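Run log, item B.
One chain of 324 residues. Sequence copied directly from the ordering sheet:
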Amino acid sequence: MPTADAVLVLTGTFDPTADLVIEELNRRGTPVFRADTAWFPSRLALAAGLDGASGWTGTLATGRRTLDLSAVRSVYYRRPTAPEFPAEMSAEARSVASAEARRGFGGLLSALPCRWLPPPGRAADAEYKPFQLRVAAESGLRVPRTLITNRPEAAREFADGIGAPVVYKPFTPIRGTVGGQSVAVYASVLSTADTGDPSIRTTAHLFQEWVPKAHEVRLTAVDGRLFAAGIHANSAAAEVDWRSDYDSLTYQACDPPAAVASAVRRMLDRLELPYGAFDFVVSPSGDWTFLEVNPNGQYGFIEQATGLPITAAICDYLEGVHQT
C-alpha cells in the first residue's frame, strides 16, 4: 500500500532517538516510512524516473510497504548504515556497487525537493571541529584558545603560553574493544609532560585551554527554537567530560543568555542547519563558552530528564510547522 505525504526516516535498525520521533509522528497521524540504506539493494527496491521539469517520480519499496517519492514531505536523516551486498560478490564488484549505490540511490534521495533534518552534506561539513570553532567565533560565541598540531614542541609551547591546564580532545568519537573490553577516548586534562609526548607526532591532535566550570549546558536548537539544560557533574571524571560518567549527572532546564541565543541562531544560519546539539561550559562567573556542536546529536536523555519538548519541535519541523 503506497504511503503518501510521509516523513521518510533514514536510520539504523536500533536507534532510540529515531524511535521517539516516529512515535510522536504516529501519535499525530503523520505517515512514516522508516528505512535503512543497508537494506538496499536486497531488501529495498528503487524505481524512479525523470520526465522534464516535473521532478523525480517513482517508488521506494520493501516487501511490505511502498513509498511514493513525489509525496515525501521531509526526511529525518539520523544514522543510516552502508548498503549491504551479497557475500559472494568480489571485493572489486562490491567497491563498484557501493560507489554506484551512493551516487545513484543516495543521489536520488538528495534530489527530492523536501526539507531534511539535517541536510547530510551540511551536517558532514559541520562535523569538522576546526570549521565549527571558526564559525562559532565569527557568530559571536566565546571559544577556548585552541591548537591543532602533530608537533610535541608546539603542544608544549601552547601549554606554557596558556599558563593553565590544557585539555586534549579527539576530533571524532573513539570507541572500540581492546582485549574483550569496551574502551572509549574522552577529553582529558594533560600534565606538562603529556604535552611533549612523542606520540603526538603520529596524527593531528586538538588541544584547548581548560575553562573553569560551574557546570555545562547541552543546548538543543530546532528550527530556531532553543532548549537548554544544565548538566551538573558529581564525579571527577564527569567534571572533565560528562560523557564518561552518565550515572553521576543531574540535569536542570535553563535559559541561555540573550547574546548566546542570538549567536547560536546565527551559527546555525551560517552552517545552513535546522538542528544542532550544542555543548557549553558555564564558568563560576556565568560566562558561556562554546565547546562543540553536533549536527545530529542525541537529545532523548535531556528530554527524559527535563521534560523539554524537543521531540515535538523536531516533528513540527518535519511536518512543516514553523514556530519560534
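Observations after the first pass:
- The longest helix spans residues 91-110.
- Residues 124-142+212-319 form a domain with the D-amino Acid Aminotransferase; Chain A, domain 1 fold (CATH 3.30.470.20).
Flagged for discussion on Thursday.
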